[in-house]
Specification:
Blueprint: H1 6-11, H2 14-43, E1 52-59, E2 62-77, H3 78-83, E3 94-101, H4 105-108, E4 112-116, E5 120-124, E6 130-134, E7 139-149, E8 152-156, H5 160-205, H6 211-242, E9 245-250, E10 256-260, E11 264-268, H7 275-291, E12 294-295, E13 300-301, H8 304-335, H9 340-352, H10 357-380, H11 395-419, H12 423-431, H13 436-463, H14 470-473, H15 500-509, H16 514-549
Antiparallel strand pairs: 1-2, 1-5, 2-3, 3-4, 6-7, 6-11, 7-8, 7-9, 9-10, 12-13
């Protein structure tokens, strides 16, 4: 058989098949390459890197000692270094420079410093070099001199490190006891006291003059104040215990500081750690990242409130958008008279999918927050005014805004699913005596449920990554409390919340320390992808289950 000519090969469509395959392959390579880049740069942040102590030729007459972690190495043009006042040997066209995370911001004023490779005279990795993660001022790099208790030296020299670890563990335990009392018990009391204040104000607005009603509120408030006083005494004891321990620390250039252990999150010696110890440390840091609260302007600590807020927002949005989208699609496909008006509505729905998301945010702010929320406050929460309850951005308005944003996707997907159900099934059901509504509820909608789930998957994928509209209707840099807690009514839809997408924007572009925040941007971006994929996989599993369940009806 003769080989086909080029013309026949092109007419047969083979080039377009290969071109499509190449496009898909390139797209997959780019997607997985992007995920790999984000993963390496984000997950590498939690590894306890060795700490270098270097002698550095700062000027022809000055030699300084620096200590820190190597963050990156780059090669730059020599002229650029000379213009910045740096020394470069004659004849060198490029300079290799190293970015060191030197920490000790309270002493040095900087967390990072660039140094030229050719100016490094010597390097060392002292095993007794310690790294302290602090609740403020970033990391400390240096040496442990002594441990003090109530101002008296408890241990010094080589004996100080095991005593430090023991006292630090005790201090951290006390810290979480204090936090549990402040956030848990005292937070609940403050919430109940505020509810009593609003109840009293409600009685005043209603014109109630009966003394017994006010007396009951006063008795409840007095009981809460007594509980508060007891908790305050417990806190005073814990504060005395947590403030008595301190560590005497020395930097590589001779500065000595006395640091309270209550300001330290974690201490370790990276240069003396074995590989198994580093792996254990790595997973401890990774767990802290996904389970703890942020600190240091969101550049350190964890992002659990942002994870919680993102998942809760998507769940509430899905609960709102699904019935709205299904009802609209059922009406357009099954009940509306097909004509110019219906076609115009479909065109409008399709066009809504292309409206910029920030426009939805402006609409949500104007209609949901100011108009709807303001009127709800006037009708149902007058005792709280002028402080708004629902007349301010919150997670409910954010969910409604995203529901409007994703509604066209759900409508179109559900309509297409309804259109694929054969007409003979509808006619057979009604021939057996079922009404149109019963046919829709028991036959058509179950068979179209895989398409409905497809719409939900697309809606979740778009909504979970949106940031612009949320900045106007509820998301904040740091939320004081979660929208879900143990205070009645348990789900607080009026509260502001944190979001992974906004957290990435805030840390990456609004952080006072960009270099320190950069690894967290990658780590948070990777986590956002994981959250979206997890939500989508759940919806895909449900869709496949429904598809198998109703396959026999097709």
């Amino acid at each position: 058989m003769a080989k086909p000519t080029i013309v026949e090969w092109v007419k047969g469509g083979s080039p377009w098949i290969w071109l499509s395959a190449a496009a898909v392959s390139i797209s997959l390579i780019m997607v997985f390459g992007l995920l790999l880049l984000i993963g390496l740069r984000g997950l590498g942040y939690f590894w306890p890197a060795d700490v270098l102590q270097v002698k550095y030729q700062q000027s022809p007459t000055e030699i300084v000692q620096l200590v820190g972690e190597v963050q990156s190495v780059e090669t730059v043009n020599a002229e650029r270094v000379r213009e910045a006042g740096g020394f470069v040997p004659e004849g060198d066209e490029t300079v290799t420079r190293v970015l060191l995370k030197i920490g000790n911001r309270d002493i040095n004023g900087l967390d990072f410093r660039w140094i030229n490779q050719h100016d490094i005279l010597s390097e060392a990795r002292p095993e007794n070099m310690i790294v302290l993660e602090r609740r403020e001022w970033g990391n400390f790099y240096g040496y442990l001199e002594a441990i003090k208790v109530k101002g008296d030296v408890l241990a010094d020299g080589v004996d100080a490190w095991p005593v430090f670890l023991e006292r630090l563990e005790k201090t951290i335990d006390i810290f979480y006891q204090i936090k549990g009392i402040q956030v848990g018990a005292i937070g609940a009391i403050n919430y109940e006291i505020e509810e009593l204040r609003l109840a009293k104000r409600r009685l005043e607005l209603d014109g109630v003059t009966k003394a017994s009603a006010y007396e009951e509120i006063k008795q409840q408030r007095d009981a809460l104040n007594q509980q508060y006083q007891l908790l305050q005494k417990d806190l005073e004891v814990l504060y005395r215990d947590i403030e008595q321990d301190s560590a005497v620390l020395k930097t590589v250039d001779g500065h000595e500081i006395d640091l309270a252990l209550s300001k330290i999150v974690r201490g370790f010696k990276p240069n003396a750690m074995s590989i198994p110890t580093k792996i254990l440390h790595y997973f401890e840091k990774l767990w802290e990242f996904v389970s703890d609260e942020p600190r240091e302007a969101n550049t350190e600590g964890g992002i659990f409130p942002a994870i919680f807020g993102t998942v809760m927002l998507v769940i509430i949005m899905s609960i709102i958008v699904t019935p709205l989208g299904v009802i609209a699609a059922v009406y357009l496909r099954e009940y509306a008279k097909q004509g110019p008006t219906t076609r115009l509505i479909r065109i409008a729905v399709n066009n809504l999918a292309g409206v910029p998301s920030i426009v939805y945010g402006v609409f949500g702010l104007g209609f949901f927050v100011y108009f709807l929320g303001g009127n709800i406050d006037q009708l149902f929460y007058p005792e709280a005014l002028p402080s708004p309850t629902f007349g301010t951005p919150g997670i409910l308005w954010s969910a409604l805004t995203l529901a409007l944003l994703t509604l066209p996707v759900v409508i179109v997907a559900t309509e297409e699913g309804l259109a694929r159900i054969p007409r003979s099934i509808r006619e057979g059901s009604m021939a057996l005596g079922a009404t149109k509504a019963e046919t829709l509820w028991r036959i058509v909608l179950p068979m179209a449920s895989p398409a409905l789930m497809t719409g939900m998957i697309l809606a979740v994928a778009r909504a979970a990554g949106e940031v612009a509209p949320l900045m106007l209707v509820g998301v904040v840099k740091l939320a004081p409390s979660l929208p879900l807690d143990f205070n009645s009514p348990f789900i607080h839809l009026d509260r502001k919340f944190m979001h992974l997408g906004f957290h990435i924007y805030d840390v990456g572009f609004q952080s006072p320390n960009v270099e320190a925040a950069r690894p967290l941007v990658y780590a948070t971006a990777l986590l956002l992808v994981v959250v979206i994929v997890s939500l989508n996989l759940t919806a895909i599993w449900v869709r496949n289950h429904l598809r198998e369940k109703y396959k026999s009806l097709e």
